[in-house]
Amino acid sequence: MIEFGEWQLRSLEPADAPSLARHANNRAIWRNVRDRFPHPYTLADAEAWIRHAMDQQPETIFAIASDTEAFGCIGFELQSDVHRRSAEVGYWLGEPFWGQGIATGALKTLTEYAFAEFGLVRLYAHVYEWNPASARVLEKAGFGYEGCLRKSVTKDGQTIDQWLYAMVRE
Ligand SMILES: CC(C)(COP(=O)(O)OP(=O)(O)OC[C@H]1O[C@@H](n2cnc3c(N)ncnc32)[C@H](O)[C@@H]1OP(=O)(O)O)[C@@H](O)C(=O)NCCC(=O)NCCS
Fold it and tell me: To test the ligand 1 pocket, which listed residue (9, 39, 76, 93) has its Cβ within 8 A of the most ligand atoms?
């Protein structure tokens, strides 16, 4: 468990399923993540996600939590082959917790952990063109804008641009 301010990054546990499902069941979150993130988001979806996270060896997916509940997730996906020193980061927070700097704190914390423990030189993220809040989170956490992947995503009935952000550490 790593604390940042009054919040924590910690391992997901089976008991997190009800609070995670409650927060994840939100179209405003679904619209900004991949379609593999279900909508509606059920208790069974949360249980399956927690099992998946707990199966990761080494651990790469974490709960964003208070003392009383998990209300978001953050993680990274290690790449392979010639991309093996890169990882893609992703995150979401329950809407009542937006606008308090929590995603920025969680991303900074995760970034330190990922670079320190995994021999990575590059962390990156893709942001949909209608999500300036996430672009701002990446900028505040020290990621740089690398470019626009034009019409690279089809989401919620529209084919849109993605912005690519990355942090590189030798
Ligand atoms: C994106 C998300 C993670 C942000 O979390 P958060 O904890 O509210 O983020 P922070 O408070 O750390 O920072 C948000 C920043 O975006 C800014 N912001 C919010 N809405 C904005 C908008 N419409 N346009 C421009 N900036 C905006 C805020 O002002 C803040 O910047 P500031 O500190 O300079 O004022 C959260 O909204 C979320 O979970 N969204 C749905 C899932 C998602 O988008 N995941 C990321 C996919 S790439």
Answer: 93
